Amino acid sequence: MKRFLTLSLAALSVVSFVGCEPTEFKEGVVMAGGQYVSAATLNKGKQIYQEYCMACHGVDGGGDGVASKGLQPPPRNFKLGIIKFGNVVSGELPHDDAIYKALKHGLNGSAMLPWDLKQDQMVAVWQYIKTFAPDTWIGKDKELGKKFDREKFKDPFTIARRQQAIELGRKIYHVEANCQSCHRGYVTEAEMNLMSKELTGDEYGELEEDFYKLKIQESDHGYAVVPPDFTWHELRSVRADKAVEDIYVRLLGGVGGTAMPAWKDTLEDHKIWALAYYIDYLRGYKNSAKRQNFVARMKK
Length: 300
Prior knowledge:
The chain is an all-alpha fold. Helix content is 41%, strand content 2%.
């Protein structure tokens, strides 16, 4: 019996060895920003990807894995080389730490859950994922975007002036930034006219028929995007303990491959902060008994 078991294990070892896929990467590559990644790191990343990521994102990173069917939003198509939530202006290549944040915390309201990976595992799998879009990531000529330095952020309001920020953000949202052109409005017609008169000198007039509706937007990701209703939908890249700051970053940089613009050079910084406070305030209605009354009041 012991001899039979030994032979069986030996045979299994041979079969396993023969069935193994040969190592794909024989040499390292230079990624965007001049970062050299060794073949060993890429092969390690491939192994991790196949174990944890391939079911949703697909064999070649196209977002078409066996578990992707019916997922909303669809898994990211890494072959496009587009990153939605970077710590840079959308359209620029993000730094690696923005991706590690998504791996560690996941993306709210999606099938992308937090992954309990060690730092070296996160590094390896992300470097491997870059190889799905070589024209975007591989080459010493590829440059990373200018990273937002969170340590230098200066919130002009803080908790002490939160209510003031919310009131200003409400006006910026509806009048200056016109966010309801994609998302939805959260004020009555009378309130809209009053705010417009205050900021522009003219009344807004009659509200559009779709003022309280979300407007479906095209994207570069291969599918239409529904902008969030801030009183209901989860915001993908926002952490509970850093909500206002994370919303500020998203407003500052925009969302890659979508109609959500970067407000960095369009709105003054204190207005972006105010807008972040207002959106965070709206998020507070999600699980509140007051939400139904709040939404109903808008349509009177």
